[in-house]
Amino acid sequence: MATKERSESDTPLDEVMEDIRGELVRRVAAADRDANRDIYDALETE
Q1: In sequence order, which residues have a C-beta less than 8 Å from that of residue 4 and are 6 or more positions away?
Q2: Model pLDDT for residues 1-46, shown as the tens digit of each residue
Q3: What share of the chain is helix, strand, coil (3-state, %, to 5)?
């Protein structure tokens, strides 16, 4: 995932939006792992 370096000009809103985006990415990744658990488990055992 590409990251943006924080600059001095980031506003509090920018920081909150970045936190929200990060949380959404974590939730989508967790949901994907849960939905495809059998595939992830099979890949781990290979």
Answers
A1: 18
A2: 455 665 668 899 999 999 999 999 999 999 998 999 999 889 888 7
A3: 70, 0, 30
Distance CA 5, CA 38 (A): 36
Q: What does the alpha-carbon distance between residue 10 and residue 28 come to, in Å, rounded to a whole number? A: 26
Cβ contacts of 40 within 8 Å, gap of 6 or more: 33
- Statement: the pTM of the whole predicted model exceeds 0.85: no
Apex CA 26: angle with CA 30 and CA 33, to 5°? 20
